Amino acid sequence: MSGVVAPGSPSRVPPRRPDVTGGVNVAFDVPARMRDGVTLRANVYRPAGSGPWPTLLTRTPYDKDAQREHVWCGLDPVQAARRGFMVVVQDVRGRFASEGEFDTLRFERQDGHDAVQWAAGLAGSNGRVGMYSGSYCGSTQWLAAAERPSALAAISPALTWSDPMDGLFARGGAVELGLALLWALENGFDALGRLPLDDAERARRVAAVVAEWDRLGDDGYWELPVDAVLRRHRSPDLGAIAAIDRPEMADRCRVTDLYASVEVPSLHTAGWYDIFAQGTLDNYRAMAAAGKDARLVVGPWSHQQFADPIGELLFGLDASRDDAPIHGDWRELQLAWFRRHLAPDQGVALPEKPVSIFVMGRNAWREESSWPPERAREQRWFLRAGGSLTPGAPAPHEPPSEFSYDPMNPVPTTGGNGELSPAYATGPVDQARVEARDDVLVFTSDPLREELEVTGPVRVVLHAESSAPSTDWVARLCDVHPDGRSFNLCDGIARVAERAHDCARYEIDLWSTSNVFLRGHRLRVHVTSSSFPRWDRNLNTGAQRERRHEVARQRIHHAPERPSYIELSVIE
Does 19 have pLDDT greater than 70? Predict the structure, then answer.
């Protein structure tokens, strides 16, 4: 296994295809009885022979029989079984073949513990279990690990949040509307299949949900209040909207509350354009700080796209998550890491350093000893009157910048880290359409005379005020190419729930990135008040559950006593 190593390293060679076993035996719908008597079902993939084998488990709400889920998570259970692992793919409670009532993440701690212990006791298992996959399935790993089942030896949560109010249900106080409606409608089909409906009524309701899903970009996202679509179809809210009034929805899946309880080694996989990018970075950082065996891989990926093109950019063949010819296949890294902890085989080769990041702009992988890199230094670039962006502090008496924000004409989400209807692209996308609007302030640096690497956290500080009692501030960092194309790197939002008309200091967390601004490129910062429908529109009234709205006049200050700036993590 070559691993993910620095450019030019002698070990940076294409990996040899590992030896595989012969056949694979599959048992479908294998029952597992939980502590409260509910039966969950799983497909179990065993290598030919008698074992014992290290055992991999994933628990999914998305159908254990769906091939698309194996493709998305990057671990084909058949191929993993051919490599000497027993693989268990289980439907979570209340989904597809499993009994019980589905309630987003409510039962995953107890069911996760019970499922791990059950899998360890299956015929052929060596008694050591590792959990894998990502997103919701990543959260099931954290929740199970917090219960400390004795058979759990390692987890590999990919593309998974840390605080659900920072990427899953909300961000900066705004609802993750793009994900909330899409996720609820997609998962409503299985819920409809469980209702006591006759065939004609079920077909009618399924067709209505399909039509709603197809119209999300034109209709559903725009309706007020924001949960109108779900109420119309009686689709289960998976948490994003319910969490506004019910904090327990977020409490049940907040990974940050679990760190002290998790003892097992963890392999973390993130994408710079993933909707849970910062959460995965934070999870790794917490485990590493606690002295746990933890590793991190970060590619230029979104939540669904792991190879070129990502958004509107090509990062090269070696940027692929799977089957990359030089930096090594991520699937092979994951299996090697599991073999180290489940077999255990201390002879398994793993990369020397625990962190591997893809540096965009330069488009190359690099190993690091920590995240964020210890050598990164904060550097401020100031938003200046007239639209310039400079490392120099503003001059006295610089006038403020102003724009109007109309909730009925919001700035459209254009690329980025969201997970929305297919009408909206994700990843890096040229921002020309956004930058042409008069409700987006654009601040641009001079062309760079030498490269500037930004690797680590990014934040924007605004001194700002609004004519409205409540409003939002959105900021975005872009890389402007010499041909004028402007590609988004990271962004964030801060909702001001009250007293927005007071001039105050606001911090907007843009999460993190790793990008080299090449010579001749320019840095650019957007400041606006919406990115819709990724985030729900602030109606500027302080009453988000109503239809009433108003136009707000927004003001950004630049004077030395009230500076507005972006703070970058710069690698010298």
Answer: no
What confidence tens digit (pLDDT) does each residue in 131-178 have? Answer: 999 999 999 999 999 999 999 999 999 999 999 999 999 999 999 999
Which pair of structure tokens corresponds to residue 467? 């004519």
Q: Decide: 412 and 435 in contact? Cβ < 8 Å.
A: no
CA distance 334 to 269: 10
pLDDT of residue 513: 98
The whole-angstrom separation of Cα 448 and Cα 281 is 29
More reliable by pLDDT, 329 or 433: 433
**What average pLDDT does the segment 201-205 reach?**
90
Show which residues are catalytic. Answer: 135, 274, 303
Query: Amino acid identity of 158?
Result: A
The angle at the Cα of 547, spanning 545 to 551, to the nearest 5 degrees, equals 110
Q: Decide: helix, strand or coil at residue 68.
A: helix
Residue with the two structure tokens 């669904």: 304
Residue count of the chain: 572
The residues pairing with 427 across neighbouring beta strands, listed in sequence order, are 416
Rounded CA separation 399/63 (Å): 57
The model scores a pTM over 0.85: yes
| C-beta separation of 463 from 537 below 8 A | no
SS3 307: coil
Contact 186, 213 (CB under 8 A): yes
Mean pLDDT of the chain: 93
The CATH number that domain 377-571 falls under is 2.60.120.260
Q: List phi, psi (to 5°) of 380.
A: -100, 135
Find the helix or strand (DSSP H, E) in which 282 lies: helix 277-289
Amino acid in position 328: G
Query: Which of the listed CATH numbers 3.40.50.1820, 3.40.50.1980, 3.40.50.720, 1.10.10.10 matches domain 24-166+251-368?
Result: 3.40.50.1820
- ω into residue 344 within 30 of 0, thus cis? yes
Report phi then psi at 134, rounded to 5: -145, -175
pLDDT tens per residue across span 299-320: 999 999 999 999 999 999 999 9
Percent with pLDDT over 90 in the chain: 83
Give me the phi and psi of 314, to 5 degrees please.
-105, 125
What's the average model confidence in pLDDT over 281-306? 97
Burial of 204 (0-12, 13-18, 19+ CB in 10 A): exposed
Grade residue 347 by pLDDT with cuts at 50, 70 and 90.
confident
Tokens 């909707």 sit on residue? 275
Cβ atoms of 299 and 272 within 8 Å: the answer is yes
Which among 448, 467, 444 has a CA at the least distance from the CA of 566? 444
Three-state SS for 204? helix
Choose the weakest-confidence range: 19-33, 208-222, 237-251. Answer: 237-251
Q: Which DSSP symbol is given to 4?
A: S
The residues, any chain, with a CB within 8 Å of residue 483's CB and separated by 6 or more, are: none
Q: Kindly state the tokens that stand for 59.
A: 């628990």
Q: Are strands 174-175 and 471-480 parallel, antiparallel or unpaired?
A: unpaired
